[in-house]
Amino acid sequence: MIRSKRINRRQLILIVDDQEINRDALGVILEDDYDLLYAENGQEALEIMRKYALDLSLVLLDIFMPVMNGFEVMEQARADEFLNTIPIIVLTAEKSAELQALQMGAADFITKPFDITEVILARVSRIIELSEGRQLINAAEHDQLTGLYSRNFFYEYAKRLFLYHPDMHMDAVVVNIEQFHSINAVNGRDFGDEVLKTIGTEILSFLSETDGIGNRSEGDQFQIYCIRQPDYKALLERLQDKVSNISAKVRIHLRMGVNLRKEGVEPIVAFDQARVACNMARGDYKNPLMFYNDDLHKRELISRRLLNDLRGGVEEHQFQVFYQPKYDIRCDPPRLASAEALIRWKHPEMGMIIPGDFIPLFESNGLISVIDSFVWENAAKQIRRWREKYQFTLPVSVNVSRADLFDPTLTRRLVSLMQNNGLSFEDFKLEITESAYIDNAKQAVETIRGLQDAGFEIEMDDFGSGYSSLNTLSTMPVDVLKMDTKFVQNIEKNDTDMRLVNLILDIARHLKLRVVAEGVETQGQLALLKNADCDLVQGFYFSRPVSADDFEKLIQKEIMLERG
Predict the structure, then answer these.
(1) Cα separation of 361 and 367, whole Å?
(2) What is the mean pLDDT of the chain?
(3) Phi and psi dihedrals of 327, rounded to 5?
(4) How far is Cα 448 from Cα 379, in angstroms, rounded to an integer?
(5) Beta-carbon-side half-sphere exposure of residue 240 (alpha carbons within 13 Å)
(6) How far apart are the C-alpha atoms of 291 and 275, rounded to whole Å?
(7) Which residues on adjacent β-strands are paired with residue 352?
C-alpha cells in the first residue's frame, strides 16, 4: 500500500464518479473549502484511497460505475484496516441503492442531480466533523501500544458497569511487572514494549472469554474489571506463561492484587485497594498473588505512616545503627574479626520497629537509599571513632541495596566517604544481596565490578535464599559468601543440610572465596561449622545486634585477648 502524508493543508476529499460533468459539478461546490482528488471508477478510487489513506477526510462515491462499482469499493474498504475509518457519502439517483449503501457502512447519501449547494456542503461538513470526532475519541479511548482502554475511559466504563449492572459482581484486578524499569534499562525500550504488548494481548484474549474491561493505567500496570473468576491464580499463571516465553535470557516476574467485589465500593476505590494488595506482593516471587482484606488495609495504613515519617525520623535521630559481630572460627578461641552495620528505628509513637517491617517497604518505594546513606555515614564515622579511642580498627560491612546499584554516583560517593573519614578499603566492606545479582544481572555486575576495581571487598549476602545457580557463581564479582541462615539452622538435626553446607564450602574454596555463616545460635552449630573449615560466623550465639556503646565491650574484650 502506498500511503502519503501531506503537511498542514485543508481537508482532502476524493470525488468518485464516472461522469465528468458530475465530478466538475461537485468540484465547483467544494473547491473553495476543501482540497480535492478525482477518480472515474472504483478501481482508480481504491488506488487513490490507499495512497492518501492518512489524509483523506471523506470520499464521495458514485454507486453505479464501470470497472468497479461503488458497492465493491465499499466492501474492499470495509475489509482494509487503513481504509475502513474513511467516511463515505454515496452519490446515487437510485432510491433502492441508498438503503443497501447505508447497511454497508456509508455515512450518508447525496441524491443526484446535485441541486441545492448548501445542503451538499452541510452534509459534507457534518460527516467530516463526526468522523474526525470519532477518530479523536478512539485515539484517546485506547492505549495505542496494547489496545486496552486508556485510564479515563476505563474508569468511566467501569463506573457505568458498577451503576447499571450491580448483579454482575465485578472484581478489581491489578497486574504489575516486577522491576520493569530495569527490564527497559537493560534490554531496551523495544523489548519492554514487547512485554507490555504481550500482556495486553493476553488480557484482551481473556476479556473476550468473559464479561469485563481492561486498561494499562501506568507504564507497567494493568487493570482488569471482570466477572468473578473461580481461580485468579490461573489467570496470573496464564499471563506469566506468556511473558516467560518472550525470552529465555530475561527473567520477567508478574505480581497480582485482587479486590473481590464489596457492596457499595465504587471501582476507583476498589482498584486503589487492589493496587495496595499488588504492592504488598512486590518482590515476593513465591507468593505473587495477594487478595485485599482488612488485615491488608491495616498494614497499608501502617506502611503509609512509616513512609510519611521516614524523613522526619532521619532528621530527628530516631534511627540508630546497631552492630553484630562476625567471629573468625579458624582460631581457638574464635576472634572478633569484623561487624555488620544494621539499622533500627525507635519510632516516638510506635516504639521499636524491626527492620523486616520497614526495609522491604522502603525498597519497594524507592526510599531505601535514604536509609542506606544514613547507615554508611554513621558506620564510617563509628569505625573512625573506635580507631581513635582504642587504636583498634574493626572492619564493618554495610548493605548496598538493589536501588543503590542504579545510582551512577555510587562508587564516587563511597570512595569520598572513605577519604573523609581516613579509612582504607579493608575497613569498609559492602554487602549486596544475592537477588541483586540476579535481578538486572548485567547492570548489577557492571556496577559491582566497578566497586571492586575501586578497591572495595564485596560480600554476597543471603547466599542460597534466591535464584542463583552454583554454575553462575564463578561469573559474579564477589569476594565473600554469606551463607543464608536457612542452611545453618538445622545442621545439627539434618544430615542433608550439613552436606549442603559442606558443598557450599567446597565450592567457595575452589573459587577462593571466604564464607561467613549467618544465624549461628548454638555451640553444636559452631562446632560443625568449625570442623567443616568455615571461615567466619555471626549470630546470636556470640551476640545479637547491639548499639555502638554496647559493642565497645566486645572490642575491649578483644583488646584484652590480644594483650594476653
Answers:
(1) 8
(2) 85
(3) -115, 140
(4) 20
(5) 15
(6) 10
(7) 346
- SS3 label, residue 550: helix
d(CA 304, CA 372): 20
Answer yes or no: are the C-beta atoms of 151 and 217 closer than 8 Å.
Answer: yes
Domain ranges of the chain: 12-140, 151-292, 302-558
pLDDT at 559 over 80: yes
Question: Per-residue pLDDT tens for 14-69?
Answer: 998 888 888 888 888 888 888 899 998 988 988 888 888 777 888 888 888 888 88
Q: What angle do CA 61, 3, 45 make, to 5 degrees?
A: 20
CA dihedral 447, 449, 454, 460 (to 10 degrees): 90
Chain centroid to CA 179: how far? Answer: 5
H/E element, 255: strand 254-259
Least Cα distance to 478 among 519, 501, 507, 521 occurs for 507
Residue for grid cell 513512609: 307
Helices and strands of the chain, counted as H and E runs: 20, 19
253: helix, strand or coil: coil
DSSP state of 406: G
With cut-offs at 50, 70 and 90, classify the pLDDT of residue 167: confident
Annotate 412-451 with DSSP letters as a single string: HHHHHHHHHTT--TTTEEEEEEHHHHHTTHHHHHHHHHHH
Q: Own/partner pairs for 498-505, CB < 8 Å, 24+ apart?
A: 498/528, 498/532, 501/528, 501/529, 501/532, 501/534, 502/532, 504/463, 504/464, 505/532, 505/533, 505/534
> Is 174 within 8 Å of 225 (Cβ atoms)?
no
Fold (CATH) for 151-292: Alpha-Beta Plaits (3.30.70)
User: CA nearest 324: which of 312, 337, 313, 314?
Assistant: 337
Rounded to an integer, what distance in angstroms lies between the CA atom of residue 392 and that of residue 562?
Answer: 11
Helices (H), 2-150: 20-30, 42-51, 70-78, 95-103, 117-141
Tell me the C-alpha distance between 244 and 292, whole Å. Answer: 26
pLDDT-wise least confident of 183-197, 438-452, 464-478: 464-478
The set of cell numbers assigned to 165 is: 449492572
Q: 302-558: which CATH topology?
A: TIM Barrel (3.20.20)
Banded model confidence at residue 3, pLDDT cuts 50, 70, 90: very low
Q: How deeply is 241 buried, as exposed, middle or buried, from its count of CB atoms within 10 A (0-12, 13-18, 19+)? A: exposed
* CATH architecture, range 12-140: 3-Layer(aba) Sandwich (3.40)
pLDDT, tens digit, for every residue of 356-388? Answer: 888 877 887 778 888 899 999 999 999 999 999
